[in-house]
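worker-03 picked up job from queue 'complexes'. Input manifest follows; two sequence lines, order preserved.
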Amino acid sequence: MNDSKDITSPGYEIPPELRHQVTITTLERIYNWGRANSLWPMMFGLACCAIEMIATAASRYDLARFGMEVMRPSPRQSDVLIISGTVTKKMVPQIVRLYNQMAEPRYVIAMGACASGGGPFKEGYNVVSGIDKFIPVDVYIPGCPPTPQALLNGLIALQKKIERQSLRDLPWYQKGPSEPIPVPVLGPDLMDPRKYALIREVTHRQTPQESQGENAHE
Amino acid sequence: MSEIIPKIAQIPDLSALFPDKVHQDTRLGYQGYIVEREHLLEVVRLLRDEYGYDYLSSVTGVDYLPEGKMEVVYHLYKTLGGPALVLKVQTPREDARVPSLVPLYRGAEFQEREAWDLLGIRFEGHPDLRRILMWEGFAGFPLRKDWREPYFEEEAKPYKSRWPEGFVFRAEDRNPFGDNVQYPPGFDPESWTPEDDEAIYRALKRVEDQDDLHAETLVVNLGPQHPSTHGVFRMVVSLVEETILDLKPVMGYLHRNHEKIGERNTFLQNMPFTDRLDYICSMSNNFGYALAVEKLMGIKPPERAEYIRVMMAELTRFLNHIFAIGFLLNDLGAYFTPALYAIEERELILDIFEAVSGSRMMCNYFRFGGVARDVSDDILEKVRRLVNDRLPRKVDEMDEFLTKNEIVRERCEGVGILTAEQAIANSASGPVLRASGVPYDVRRADPYSIYDRLEFDVAVRYHGDIYDRYLIRLDEMRQSLRILQQVLRDIPEGPIMSGKPQYQVRVPPGEAYGRVEGPKGELGFYVVSNGKPNPWRYHVRAPSFINLTSLVDMARGNKVADVVAILGSIDIVLGEVDR
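worker-03 finished. Artifact:
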C-alpha cells in the first residue's frame, strides 16, 4: 500500500538535485493513494462478525495503522460498508438504503461466510444468500467469523484495488448522477423490484396443486 | 413432623387438585401435566398465587403434525428455587388457540408473540399479538412441520446430495427464482401494498391532543442502524417533549432461523449453531444445549470434563461481563477507551479458547457426554496465571476507574429502575433480575454440573437501576474468579468423554429442558426427540430476548437520551434476541 516508489515514479527522469525535494506523480496515483489510505468504514455491525470487527479496531490489531480507524455511524460520512454478518430479508431493505445513502466513491466488503453467500444459515427462510444479490461487493473475506487478521487482509486488498483504479473509467467520475439501487420490498417474501417480471411469470405458471410453496398462507 | 407444610414449599399434585381439568402427561419420556385449555388461567393463577410458582421461564409451541395437534409448553419455577413445573396445553392444528398468560406473567408477551409468528398459535387475550421476528405479511408459519422453506431439500440431514453420493449443487439453481424466495401461486408483486410500520405505531401509547397543553407525541425510531443498539435492534419510542411515554422494541433483523435449521440438523450438527446464538459467549450456549441433550440421553460427563466445562463457562462469564461494562461506558459517552481496556482482557481469554478449541469465538467445544479436546497442562497454567494474578487486578482497576466516577454515577444512579416485582413478572433473568433484588441464580436455585460443590455467593443488588446493573457485573466477575480458583485447584485427571465420541448420537424419545445460568441470564434449551437422529423440536429460551420485556418498564418516564444507557445495561446480543 504505502509503496512510495510506485507513487513517485511518474515514468520519466527527475533531475538528481530535485529528487529529495520535489515529487512528481500523476493525478491518478496521488488521488488513489490518498483515498486508499483514509478509508472510513461505516460503524455498522450485523452479527457475529461485528464483534471481530470491533476486536480489529481495538488495540491488539489496531486498524488505525492502515488509516481506517475513523468509524462513522452515518453512511453520509463513510467510504466502506463492511457487511459484517448474516444478511436477513428483514434487514436487506435497510442495507440497500444505507448503501444508496453513502457518498461516492463507495466500497463494500462482504465479511464472513454469511455476507458472502449465506454461510451456515443459507437454507434459512429469512436469510439472503449473500449481499451481492443486491449491492456490488468489492472484497469477499472468508471465515466464520474471519479473524481480525483476515479482516485486515481484506481491507488491504481493498486498498490495493483502489490504487489500481483509473479515474477515467470509474462510474462515479462520469457525467450525470448514478442510479440508486432499487430498495427491496417485504411482501409475502422478499421482493426485488428488478425481478417483478420474473416473479409474475413464475407465480402465474404455478397452479395451487403443483406449487411447492404449498401450505397455509394467511 | 406434624406441622403443616406451607403451600409455598410444596410441589403440588395437580391431578389431585384439579381431577378433571388436569392430567399427568403419560407419554414416554415426557413430564409434567396436560391442562385443558379452558382451565389454563385458573390453574396457573392458583399455582402462582398459592404455590409460589411466580416465575414463568419459558413458553413455546410444538407442532405434533402426525397427531394433528399443537402443544404449548410452559415451564414454571419458583424464585425460591427448585425444579420446574411443566404444563402443557393442547389445541387442534387447524384452529390453534390458547388463552394468553400475559395477564398473569408479562414475561410471556414476547414468547407468545414468537409462537404466533412462527407456529401460528393464536393467544387469546394477548394485548399486542403481532409478528415479532418476521414481518407482518410474511406468508405462512415457518416452524410448522409442513411448511417448507424456499431452499427445501429434504426433511432431515444428512442430505442425500451430500452423503453418501456426495453430489452437491447450489440451492439457487433449483429454485425457480434463482434466489431464496417463494411466493403464493398467482401472486402479483405490483398489487402488493407493503404494511410498513403502521401496526407498530398503532400499538404505541400516545397522549391525546389537548388544547390547553399542546401535548404532542413525537414518535422516534432508534435503529436498526444505530451506533448504540448493539447490533441491528430497533426501538420505537413515543415522546412527550423528551420524556419517554412508551417504547416498542422491534426485532427480527437478525432472525437466522436457528430453530427451523436446528430441526433439520442432527443433534450434534446443532452444536456449532448454538455458538452463533450469543456470539460473545459461545461456551455457555454449548453448555446449555449439551445439558438438555444429555438429560434426554441419560448420560453424565466424567469428572474432568465437568471441571473443564465449568472453567470455560466461568471464563465466558468473565469476558462477557467485562465486555458489557466496556460497552455500557461506550453508551454513556466514554467512547471506546473503557471498551479498549475490556477488549484487552477479552483477547487473553480468547487466546485460551483458541488454544483448546481452535477458534476464537465459535468454539464448538462441548460434546454430549464431555468436551471435544482435553486441556493441556500448559494451558491450565496459563489460565491459572490469569485467574490468580492478572484478572483480579483488572477487575479492581475497572472498579477504581469507573465506580466512583462522577459522570457514571450521575447518569446511572436512579435511572432505568426495574423493581423486583416487575423483574419477576417480566421473567427477567441474570444480572437484570439480581440487580433488582432477587437473588435468583440457576447455579444455586437448580444446580447443574458441579456447581453444588463450589463455593460462591449469588451476587445481589437492590436498587434495580443502571448503576446496580453495572455493579452486579463487577460482583459476578469476582465470584467467577472465585469459582475458577476452586476449579483450577481441584481439577482431577481422567477421561474427558463418557463413551467414545460419536457423530450420530442415539437420543431416546422424550422431551428435556436444559438450562444454565448464562452470562446474560437463564439460557434454556427445550428439545423434543422422537427417537430419530434429528430433534423434533428445538427451542432456545434466550435470556436477552426475554430481558427486553423489561425495557419498557425501565425506560418509561426517563429521558430519551437515557434509553441508550438503559439498553446497554440490559446487555443484549442480537444473535440471541432474534436467533
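worker-03 released lock.
The longest helix of chain B spans residues 303-332.
Chain B touches chain A through 69 residues (CB under 8 Å).
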